Amino acid sequence: MASYSTNEFKGGLKVMLDGDPCSIVENEFVKPGKGQAFNRVKLRNLKTGRVWERTFRSGESLESADVMDREMEYLYNDGEFYHFMEPETFEQHQASADAVGDAAKWLKEQDVCTVTLYNGAPLAVTPPNHVILEITDTDPGLRGDTAQGGTKPATLVTGAVVKVPLFLEIGETIKVDTRTGEYLGRAKED
Amino acid sequence: MTDTSWQPSASIEALHLRGALLADIRRFFAEREVLEVEVPVLSRRATSDPHIDSITALCNGDTAYLATSPEFGLKRLLAAGIGDCYYLGKAFREGEAGGRHNPEFTMLEWYRCGWDDRRLMIEVGELLSRVLQISQVQSLSYRELFLRELQLDPHTASEQELHDCTAREVELSFVPANRDECLDLLMSHRLEPAMGDGITLLYDFPASQAALAKVQEDATGTPVARRFEAYVGGLELANGYWELTDAEEQLRRFQADHRYRGMHKLHVYPFEERLVAALEVGMPECAGVAMGIDRLLMLAGGYASIGEVIAFPIGRA
């Protein structure tokens, strides 16, 4: 397996640290004028999503991690696993609920997601930045409230709950930013 | 890594600031009757510093080195009787590249005859206040800073205490090899960020980090290096000494550096025996300091990385 020295560390490089695959976020070269050189590195643990800070001696190296991002279509959930398909090869992958994590509440069949593979198996799933989903439950819009511009919770078909304007009704479809969970607007009719 | 852009990475505004700063520094020294001198950038001799590497060049078929600092040339001139002098020009260090480092950089180094480190620190504060327009200057000893921030005396703490404190404060991928490595880690990770926005002049370093400074006992009887560093907003800008003038001690330190480099399988360069010869004849008692001009520009213009103040940093050079 290839390894990378601290002077090759750059944002996005995938390396192994303490047995877990990580993505380098930031690499700062630190050298006191008369002292030894260090590299102060921030890495995101791809299993847990946590960011680690670690200082290395300059010249130390880390093994590369067999991690790659692939665009895949979400197919279905069989109750235990989430199934994804690579659109060109039709190769299918099943991801555990752990790997899917919070992305689960945005997954709609046929949407294209980024699936991170580690040693060939799904490690994490990133939903599209914007999704269009139907409202399945919300309090009825109250007459006279439209001018106030308030919000109410609405449950979407995938289970996510977002804050929406008071005038929206069950059955309408809306556009949501999955990174912030914010309502962006009513979806245009196709 | 070569960048194919032909354009400078620094803005035209930053380059104007650089020109104005260099002119202001030259005025500062002209007002004080300190002479600008030039010394070789290309030399047959190299640094002996255990943690600095020289860039190797080929000159007339022989190995030569790009100067890591103008120190040896300036000291030979001091021994020859040049008097107060400064160098403002390029220096080179192998392997140093990052947000605050470029292998080729601009260095200011000056010497004041008859002064000690404390007197020179005042002048460093004056120059920094002038070019950065900062009036707040704090002077404190290396020990005071460690006591204030970590409740640890860097000179008397046991090796175990230093290791424990480092392990507590810094997430490391390795075990520090010795006291100095612990101290360097604490300094760069914990103390520099705690220094505040003003000018900080830090003095009386551990004797083990003396480099080319005199070592003397402080008021508590601890031997300390008469060395100081200047920081602004936690960014290391300058390193100064009450200069070692003892030829025998200089030779011992060169030899110790060579042994260290040999033991740690680092490249061993030919050391500057002509500096020892100059000290044998006699160099005036003096204090000297080196300052990083690119970093000074970063501070003066509020730039976050060194590439924003150098027209063509190494990737585009």
UniProtKB/TrEMBL annotation, chain A:
Give its localization.
Answer: Cytoplasm
Which positions carry N6-(3,6-diaminohexanoyl)-5-hydroxylysine? K34
**Residue ranges occupied by any Translation elongation factor P/YeiP central domain in the UniProt entry:** 69-123
Q: Which SUPFAM superfamilies match?
A: Nucleic acid-binding proteins, Translation proteins SH3-like domain
SMART domains assigned: EFP (SM01185), Elong-fact-P_C (SM00841)
Q: Which residues form the Elongation factor P C-terminal domain?
A: 131-186
Instruction: Give the matching Pfam families.
Output: EFP, EFP_N, Elong-fact-P_C
Family per record: Belongs to the elongation factor P family.
Q: What is this protein called?
A: Elongation factor P
State the organism of origin: Microbulbifer donghaiensis
UniProtKB/TrEMBL annotation, chain B:
Any one GO MF term held by the record is: ATP binding
One GO term of the cellular component aspect? cytosol
Q: Which GO terms describe its biological process?
A: lysyl-tRNA aminoacylation
Q: Which Pfam families match?
A: tRNA-synt_2
The reply on keyword Ligase is yes
Annotated Aminoacyl-transfer RNA synthetases class-II family profile domain ranges read 15-313
PROSITE patterns in UniProt: AA_TRNA_LIGASE_II
UniProt entry keywords in alphabetical sequence? Aminoacyl-tRNA synthetase, ATP-binding, Ligase, Nucleotide-binding
Any keyword Aminoacyl-tRNA synthetase? Answer: yes
As its record notes, the protein acts as a catalyst of: D-beta-lysine + L-lysyl-[protein] + ATP = N(6)-((3R)-3,6-diaminohexanoyl)-L-lysyl-[protein] + AMP + diphosphate + H(+)
So which domain of life are we looking at?
Bacteria
Q: Which NCBIfam families match?
A: genX, PRK09350.1
Q: How does it assemble?
A: Homodimer.
What protein name does the entry list? Lysyl-tRNA synthetase, class 2
* Biological source species: Microbulbifer donghaiensis
